[in-house]
Amino acid sequence: MLSQVTGLSRHFTEDTLRAYLLARSTRAGNGCLIVRGYGGRRGGYQKLAGRAWAHIAAYVVFVGGYDPTLEVRHDCGAPDCIEPTHLRQLSHADNCRERTQRPRCRNGHDRETDPATGRYRRVCRTCNRLAQQRWRERQAAEVAAARAAYGRTPC
Length: 155
Fold this sequence. Notes:
Elements: H1 14-23, E1 25-27, E2 33-35, E3 47-48, E4 52-53, H2 54-63, E5 71-74, E6 87-90, H3 92-98, H4 125-149
Antiparallel strand pairs: 1-2, 3-4, 5-6
């Protein structure tokens, strides 16, 4: 069964893969089992155990009956969740049909509706505003450090 998972290291057995996934995951307050894969990005699909997607490896180990022609879908909407009750297999067409826009961004802010299209905006304005504010603070600190290095006092 593990041989059907694309990118999975061949050194794993079902027991070692199960232990590996559980060691790299933490339980969230909403019931999701969040896995920490390669890289520092939270909220995206995670790769681990070779170059395999964590949610697919978790489906094979915890649920079983994996069909490589179908896609593994997260019912909870968290792409880095490996909770077995949140995963199920669908065809690509069914997966696209069930995909909806989420009313909240990944940081929990309510998303605004675009008046031109009537759909949710792609970018959360609150997250964008906070990111710009952090960038301006970093730039001001760099300018202050550069002025201090040249012996100039701030204006």
